[in-house]
Amino acid sequence: MRPSLFLLSVATGIRIMYCKNDCLRDYQQEMKLRLFEEWELHRSVMVQMPTGTGKTHLLAAIVREFLCGSGSRVWIVAHRRELVEQIEETVSRYGMGREDGSVRVMSIQWLSRNRKIMDGQPDLIVIDEAHHALAETYRELWKSYPEARKLGMTATPCRLNRKGFTDLFDTLITSWSIAEFIGRGWLSSFDYVSIRANSREQRLVDSLKKRGADGDYQVKEMNAVLNRETGIRQLYESVRRYAAGKKGIVYAVSIAHARQIAAYYSLHGVESVAIDSKTPALERGRLVEDFRRGKISVLVNVDIFSEGFDCPDVEFVQLARPTLSLAKYLQQVGRGLRKSDNKESCVLIDNVGLHRIFGLPVRDRDWEAMFEGRMAGNAQPRTRMENNGLSVSCSLSEDSKRNEGLEIVMTHNCLLDAVRNGDLVRLGEDGPAGGEQRTALKACRDRQSGLWGLRCGNKITVIPQYREVFDICANRAAVRFKDGRTGVVDKSGVLMVVTGCCRRLRFLKGELLSVTKEDGSDCYTDLKTNRTYQERPVVFSYGGIELLRVGETFHSRTRKAYAS
User: Fold this and answer.
1) In the chain, which residues have pLDDT < 50?
2) Read out DSSP for 443-484?
3) Looking at domain 441-563, which CATH architecture does it have?
4) What's the topology of domain 181-421?
5) Which of 25, 53, 150, 154 has the smallest set of CB atoms within 10 Å of its CB?
6) Domain 5-175 part of CATH 3.90.226.10
7) Where is the Helicase C-terminal domain positioned along the sequence (predicted)?
8) What backbone torsions phi and psi does residue 194 show, to the nearest 5 degrees?
């Protein structure tokens, strides 16, 4: 059956055909629709979705849809060979191969060497793992093809050095938070286990002072401090206690560290292999396939599987590498959050105390601020994060309480309860480092069009379409539409109250709305009943009934008016 299509007329001249049966999940369909809406306003858009939520499948669906319209040539660019191979495989499943040359998947290194011999101009350039797109080679790509549409895909639009992405991308589209994906069943819940704050291991991590060229911890110093038999034995004991018999990934600080860990685990009965940049491609592929089939229990790596590794049945992730990079932290723990049929939850074993400087993975992030360069994607001081989102009201066994080096920070059952009940404090959404709850409704402005939209936390709930946002209260916003009319909408943009054309709207206590008319006079709307009054009502209760007093008349908010 051919896909059903309908045409979207785009003001910028791009013709898009929407394919209805591309087997995307509901949130992927929503992200795709929002992207094409943004392309009406902007030529270059970045899309953020958490690791494990299907960015590559969404990418392929977007490319196919683009080619169904006026686009004839798409380039997909990644920064590593493994990502190129994975994208090529996904794209081929969508029926887009190399045969007609309409889709080319390549590494940025290959493209920078061979761009002069490339045929034709691309209509769309897609950058996978676009948080790497600040390199000069990407800037040159933008300059060489200014007319091409650009799309950046990433789980973590942030940089350690606080550099934003606005010189390459015009706007950012964010998806649900990790907590919401877990609550809706699209990502796996997790148990989080960590070294204790006053442990020897935490003191060793805190002693690291040197920085590498990228601003993160220096590998040489990390290897000297952490690549010791006592530390590796502690890593093994952590896996034995909390992830015995499970398949997992370990992140090490160096090639030597990875090989020492794999050797120690294998010696103690846990079949493990180390994979690093020096592992030949064919051997690496064979080892990964053995892991998928269960012949190998543990893959120990050095940043090889931080991005693009797709194996849903990873049952534990062990963090044995300190980092100051929020992107690296979330990319690594995200390898364990992919759902699979037989996986109830994932175990995250934090042997370097990263949750103390980043919060738990479910902590909400201000991606817009990081995208714009107003906030760095780096660690927070431990004094700010120490008690933020770590306490859980779970009954832990005495055996686990007595464990010398480790503590249970969060269990998957407590996490699910917290997510479903909206318990933000337990998830680290409030408290010393959380500030006000980021789930509050806020206005967001599109810099190019000047229009305003609405967002809850990191999720854009209404794309920019209002000339003005007068006021926000709870989950309602008082706005002016493009045609000059004014009204009140909910967080999704559904119209609740129409106020016609007026000068100003303002929310008052007691669920009242102050309306300043064009002539400067004021009237007042009761948001519970939509009744309008020329005088400001006084709200009070009498005998369990909520009343409004307007002049000498009393109005029930549930019944007809009663004269005094």
Assistant:
1) 1-21, 383-403, 429-438, 561-564
2) EEE-TTT--EEEEETTEEEEEEEEEEEEEEETTEEEEEETTS
3) Beta Barrel (2.40)
4) Rossmann fold (3.40.50)
5) 25
6) no
7) 231-391
8) -145, 160
